[in-house]
Amino acid sequence: MTDLAMTFAQAEKGSWHIWQLAGRLDRATAAQVQAEGEKLLLQTDRLAIDLSELAYISSAGIRVLLLLAKQAENASQPFCLCSPQGIVREVLEISRMDMFLSICPSVDALEEGA
Question: N or C: which end of the chain has fewer CB within 10 A?
Answer without folding.
Answer: N
